[in-house]
Each structure stands twice: as C-alpha cells, then as structure tokens.
C-alpha cells in the first residue's frame, strides 16, 4: 500500500473576501531549492489587504494564491545542487528571490529587479502552509539561540533595517517615526539599535503607543485633531530640536505632510507606509529646505545582519508577538489581525511543535 501523502494545509485567497483553508500537493524541491516544514508564519497587513481587496495597487489576485511571507521552518529535503543546507537545519526565509541576474542584482539592489519572485505577491504563492519549497540561497540558517518565531519576525525587522539604512540613522541621530503599527515598532527597535539618541513616535492609538513606550520610545504623541504643522511643532518641543530623520510608516496623507514639516533642513524623510497613489504634500517646503525624500521597496541584504542582531540578544523582538493560532484556525487569526487586535499575530504550522 502506498504511504499516505502528508497533507499540505494552506491558506489560500481566491478573490476579494474569499479566504480558504485547503490541501495542496507537497512540492518537490528543484535543484536549487529546499523543501521546508514550515513552523511559524506572521500575518502581515498586506496578507489581510489581499484577502479584503483582492489587490494591492497593480498586484491583482487573478488566480488562487497562497498567502504568507513572514516565515521560518526546518529543511526536510534539499535539491541536487544545494550544498550549504541539509535536512534538519532551521532556517528563516527571505521571501524575495530574484529570478534573473539583471542590472539591479549586479549593484546589490535585487529588491528592485522587475522579475523577482516574492511570496504572496500575485501570481507567486506564499508560505502560509505546512510544506513549502524555496530558493535555497534565500533560506538562512538560524543559530540555536534564535527561535522560529524570531526567525519569522526577521521579515518585518528587515523593513526597519532597510528604512533606517536608507534614512542614514547613526549614533546620536534624533528620529521621528510616524505610525506605531508593527512596522513603526520595528523601525523604532532598529533605530535604537543603530544608535539613535532619541526617538519620537506618533499614532492615533493609545495602546499602540503604550507598546512603543515599552520597547524603547523616548516620547510618544497621540494624534487627535492636530494639523500636520502642529504635530511638527510638538515633535520639536519634545526633542528640543527638529529630527534629522523621519520614518513615515502609516501612508496617511496628513502624516506624510507632518513628515515634511517636522524634518530638519538638510534631513531625510523615508516613506515606508503606502497610502493612495496621489497624495497632496508640501513639496516646495521640502525642496527649499533640502529635505531628501526617499522611498523603500521591501528590503535587500538584511537577513544576515538581522540574524547576527538576534543571536547577540541585543534586540528583543519577541514581545511584538501578542497572539498565536494553530494553522487550522487561520481564518480566526486573519479576523483578529483585520480588527487590529494586538500587534503581531503568529500562525503555528507544525502540528507536532507549537512552541515559539
């Protein structure tokens, strides 16, 4: 009798509003891939957005797609050309893997490659499932003292690293972060790690700002009805000067405006949060004060640094996980994320190991 095929329970979005748990075949790893038993997967705002809206900008769900891109797991099978990993290795997955060595890859900015594969960005399937095959070069071995959940959190942490790098955060920098959701909070953690002297963080939610205080924010501002100029002047009052760097993590028009008004002349505004395509901003104010406005698209070259950082125990990212659900309860987990409950919701995909 043939051995029963292991079931590969997967979280699949079919179209806007239609999220299902279904069994898919267990993939066979290609020559340069590894097959992983997935352990922990964080739910991202983008996963919820694809479920609710069926699209993000020009990325449109046209056929059923597995969600999830913040994942870690264990190697159970290696492709014929893979030499650096073996079955039993615990790994963190970098979800963006270039398909072509184009000019962006050659300069080390592979995240900008137009043909890149990226988990859970249509039409590419993600890794919110039990078994998943991925390019082995983008699976990074985790040291024994870094947990699977920390491994999964490297993905959001990488956004913070890339944003703070692009902004130029360094020893003694004063930083404003707009938005205290998961990405604002990782930007806060990274800015502090990179040597920021003082960080101010803004949000509409008092509970999110409470969390920010817990993890190291020097000052918090709960936004009520203030104008962007008023918020900018509150920031200056708290710091005693204008911040050199602002990291905007909400995408809200008013917040982008605040980012320009608040940043000191000659400083940098990094746009991380994505809102509507067209936004009214005081661009002349930025221009005449030489405020550089930079965007970020995901991240590149961040996993090794993030792993070293976590292994050194100098950054505590575990506290961002507030909710855990087994994979079978994925629909509940998505509902909790949609409602904005807690900070980071983690799905546990290995029935035999539900530990962090």
UniProtKB/TrEMBL annotation:
Any one GO MF annotation of this record: L-iditol 2-dehydrogenase (NAD+) activity
Keywords carried by this UniProt record: Cell projection, Cilium, Flagellum, Metal-binding, NAD, Oxidoreductase, Zinc
UniProt cross-references to InterPro entries, sorted A to Z: ADH-like_C (IPR013149), ADH-like_N (IPR013154), ADH_Zn_CS (IPR002328), ER (IPR020843), GroES-like_sf (IPR011032), NAD(P)-bd_dom_sf (IPR036291), SDH-like (IPR045306)
PROSITE patterns per UniProt: ADH_ZINC
GO CC term (a single one): motile cilium
Gene3D superfamilies recorded: Medium-chain alcohol dehydrogenases, catalytic domain (3.90.180.10), NAD(P)-binding Rossmann-like Domain (3.40.50.720)
Annotated GO biological process: sorbitol catabolic process
Keyword Heme listed: no
One Pfam family, short name: ADH_N
Record's subcellular location: Cell projection, Cilium, Flagellum
Cofactor: Zn(2+)
Ranges for domain Enoyl reductase (ER): 17-347
PANTHER family in the cross-refs: SORBITOL DEHYDROGENASE
Recorded family membership: Belongs to the zinc-containing alcohol dehydrogenase family.
This protein's name: Sorbitol dehydrogenase
Organism: Pelusios castaneus (West African mud turtle)
